TrEMBL record:
Keyword GTP-binding on entry: no
Pfam families in alphabetical order: Methyltransf_25
Residue ranges of the region described as Disordered: 219-243
Domain Methyltransferase: 52-150
Keywords: Methyltransferase, Transferase
Segment forming the signal sequence: none
UniProt protein name: C-methyltransferase CouO
Length: 243
């Protein structure tokens, strides 16, 4: 069932492989990590017995936090970068967290874990780095990997609502590329989530940081096989950006 993904074609941590070793420190200092990770963890509400997949798990910080809250959960971390996976495995070992780390892209999730296996999928600071075709492929694979009624939770750079947030977000775009990040900054990610077949897509929180605003999104894989993809709710009640 498991097939290794090619490490070619992804954006490394902080945009450049030479900066990978600084990733944890940079995220902590520049993104108010404790604030959004705590909010994401509370929104995810992990429980023992659930199968939870962290897509784009990076160095394993979130995956190990989830295991600390729900040690009886079946925790899987997926990332295309073998170097950060080595760091994630070392971190999990040091924290005595039993996490299964697999190499692959978001679009490989179904191939790696199987269809309708996951109860919850979580992803943080990943989709803004991915080209739009990769965003669509990743969300489709996540949808297929989730059980009916399963939940998707994302923390990522979203709609940069103010001139100051748009200005700060240019730092991220300089590292991760303007083309890849443009859709997120325009507020288009919720529409892509709905387009992939999720329902109840909503923006739960907006957290301002020194690198732009990070949004927390939640959605569900519907029990109804034909959901209305047009209903997307942002935190302030405004419509999501049309694609």
């Amino acid at each position: 069932m498991t097939r290794p993904a090619s490490p070619v074609g992804f954006t490394p941590a902080l945009g450049h492989r030479s900066l990978t070793g600084l990733y944890d420190v940079a995220i902590a200092v520049m993104t108010r990590e404790r604030v959004w990770r705590s909010a994401l963890l509370a929104q995810l509400a992990p429980h023992d017995g659930e199968t939870i997949v962290d897509v784009g798990c990076g160095t394993g910080t979130l995956a190990t936090l989830i295991k600390a809250v729900a040690p009886g959960a079946d925790m899987i971390g997926i990332d295309p970068d073998p170097e950060v996976l080595d760091r994630a495995r070392a971190k999990a070992l040091g924290r005595e967290a039993d996490v299964d780390f697999l190499q692959g892209f978001a679009g490989d999730v179904t191939d790696l874990i199987g269809r309708e296996r996951a109860d919850k999928v979580v992803s943080s600071l990943v989709f803004h780095q991915v080209p739009i075709d990769g965003k669509r492929a990743g969300l489709a694979a996540i949808h297929a990997a989730l059980r009916t009624g399963g939940e998707l939770h994302i923390a990522d750079y979203g709609w940069q609502r103010t001139p100051s947030m748009r200005l700060l977000f240019r730092q991220v775009q300089a590292l991760d590329g303007v083309e890849n990040t443009r859709l997120n900054a325009a507020g288009g990610l919720p529409d892509l989530i709905a387009e992939a077949g999720f329902e109840g897509v909503e923006e739960r929180a907006v957290i301002t940081t020194a690198t732009g605003s990070i949004s927390l999104y939640r959605a569900e894989k519907p029990r109804d096989p034909q959901p209305d993809p047009g209903k997307v709710r942002l935190l302030d009640g405004s419509p999501a950006a049309a694609l």
